[in-house]
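Worked example

This section walks through a single chain of length 223. The input is the sequence exactly as stored; nothing has been trimmed or padded.
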Amino acid sequence: MTPSSFVKKLAAVSFPNVFNPYADTCPQHDRLDAPATRRANMRSYLSAVEEKGVDTIWMGRDLGYRGGRRTGLALTDEHHLSVVATLFPECSLSRATRGAAVSERTAVEIWALLRILPQPPLLWNVFPFHPHEPNDELSNRKFTRKELSQVTHLNEALLRWLQVKRVVAIGQDAQAYASQLGVEVVNVRHPSYGGITDFRAGIRACYGLITLAPAQGTLFNPS
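Given that input, the structure is written out below as tokens.
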């Protein structure tokens, strides 16, 4: 498996009421070359992840319309595209949309903690596309069981290729899915719907981090 071959497989997936950012174009927000830009982003990201030897995945549920639908990267909004290079200097990313950059609350929380980890994870989703309600592309819904069954082989191929040893499951849907993958799974609460404090505490516990100065939000690794 290579970044190019994997992204090609992603781009070949198609479902009704599912936006595939590597193949589809949003008529409201995308530039004409948006799918090609997002494919290039994913290839660059996976190449950097492979080069760094990352063996941990932070896994969410699916792409949201304010985040991964626009960037093509899980748990990453447009405001954090430039931050990716601070963790993966070899990674080169570009925006695929027109107008002002859009922020996503979950991405803000994710990236606030990623910056202080000793080794960054791969960000991924159980369902690596954006499922939406019929006739409303700018909405979020949970994937169906049938949709998930059509992408499980992609997730399994990704884990084998990168030799993933641990999944940090963000939320119950990710935990239920990751428990079937045959690797170590650590569950943390999703930061949405009042879960920010528990999410931060879960990540700190997972990585052995403690809070030194709560008022400033300063974290350090005691080892």
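What to look for: Residues 34-52 form the longest helix (19 residues).
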